[in-house]
Design goal:
Elements (H helix, E strand, L loop, with lengths): L3 E3 L1 E2 L9 E2 L28 E2 L11 H7 L5 E2 L6 E2 L18 E2 H18 L3 H4 L6 H21 L1 E30 L7 E42 L4 E53 L15 E16 L5 E6 L1 H4 L7 E7 L6 E3 L5 E4 L1 E2 L2
Antiparallel strand pairs: 1-10, 2-3, 4-9, 5-6, 5-7, 8-10, 8-11, 8-13, 9-10, 11-12, 12-16, 13-14, 14-15
């Protein structure tokens, strides 16, 4: 067992501080020590001390340690008197220690459990506090209402009437493709290609193991260079503490050189047959367009040569409106079927989301007629 250290306690009755643990009655009020919590001076519970940092530890002399004993104080089961570890019979009623049913730690646990239960039963400070101001809640509700209102507003529609169609128009275009011959090369011969030549050429390199070489590599490792001592302190339950000695290893970094076999690779060229060929491909060469400002939309006429063909067809139908309110104008595109029902001079309504989503052609009540795309 390690050396014993003097503990202290505070009188729960008169408030006297730092009474030596070997004293079982308060020197100020004379009340018996009872259920108290022992502590060490200048030492926090659970704190460790390094070797050489124990100068302020108050060790017991051999005589004091013999008097204090090594075990916790015990309580008489008959008169509830506190007795020292070295007392075999109760100093108050003479009952045998063998009949004792509790010691210092048993009573301390019961006391701590009772205090915890009492603390849990007490209302929290927030529950006893004055009613909180309703102002923060009011502001939170107001912000929530504003956000909800903004979301509803932005998701709503805005229908603009009083728009007069000032012009209509259409554009149709056909891409003309030409069949051209190209000279190309590759690692395979495409279908329909006319082979003009072939030869072995470098395709890629493979990394191939050639041999191993011994090389020296610097490494490091942690090695134990010694041990250092530190101490913890256990409450013995009799007003003293036991100093427990521990050892921890001290490490240092050691560097050393190690010979290892390292693989050496060489880059080996790989050859494959590369093909050279001529091949005919259809590619865009020109575009034929037609446009107009009436409903007579036609496709442009094509004069195709022998090596030409029709490609992609594109079409767009648009109209321009002028606002009677501020004379501002805007141009929109839409599907041909809806465009054919529009005429210059017609008054229409356009509805759009306030969030900026694409508008649509509508009636005066905002009911959709056709989707629109506004041109910039």
């Amino acid at each position: 067992m390690g050396r014993q250290v003097m503990g202290y306690w505070d009188c729960p009755y008169c408030g006297s501080k730092e009474i030596k643990g070997t004293v079982i009655a308060c020197p100020s009020c004379g009340r018996a020590r009872g259920d108290v919590q022992f502590y060490m001076k200048n030492h926090a519970e659970g704190e460790t001390r390094e070797e050489g940092q124990t100068g302020d530890i108050e060790y017991l002399s051999e005589e004091e340690a013999k008097y204090a004993g090594k075990n916790p104080d015990w309580y008489c089961s008959f008169c509830n008197s506190l007795n020292r570890d070295n007392a075999q019979f109760c100093t108050t009623c003479g009952a045998s220690r063998a009949d004792s049913e509790s010691n210092y730690f048993d009573r301390l646990k019961k006391k701590q459990a009772a205090e915890a239960a009492e603390a849990a039963a007490q209302p929290r400070p927030a529950e006893r506090a004055a009613p909180r101001s309703k102002r923060p809640l009011f502001f939170l509700l107001a912000i929530a209402v504003l956000i909800i209102g903004l979301v509803v507003y932005m998701s709503g529609n805005r229908t603009t009437g009083g728009l007069q169609i000032s012009s209509i128009g259409w554009t149709r275009a056909i891409t003309v493709e030409e069949n051209r011959q190209f000279s190309e090369s590759g690692w395979s011969l495409p279908q329909g290609a006319e082979l003009t030549g072939q030869r072995n050429e470098l395709h890629h390199y493979d990394s191939v193991l050639d041999h191993y070489e011994d090389v020296e590599v610097e490494r490091s490792r942690q090695v134990v260079t010694g041990y250092e001592t530190y101490y913890t302190y256990n409450d013995l339950g009799n007003g003293t503490f036991e100093q427990v000695e521990h050892e921890r290893p001290v490490y240092d970094t050691e560097y050393y050189t190690e010979t290892v076999s390292q693989p050496i690779y060489v880059q080996v060229p790989r050859y494959q047959t590369k093909y050279y060929y001529n091949i005919w491909r259809w590619v865009p060469s020109r575009e034929a367009t037609a446009s107009g400002d009436t409903h007579e939309a036609v496709w442009p006429e094509l004069n195709l040569s022998e090596n030409e063909r029709e490609g992609e067809h594109r079409e767009a139908y648009r109209f321009t409106v002028v606002s009677k309110k501020d004379q501002s104008s805007a141009t929109y595109r839409l599907a041909e079927s809806a465009w054919r029902s529009l005429n210059v001079g017609d008054e229409i309504s356009i509805t759009a989301k306030r969030s900026g989503a694409e508008p649509y052609l509508s009636d005066s009540k905002g009911e959709k007629i056709a989707d629109l795309i506004r041109e910039k």
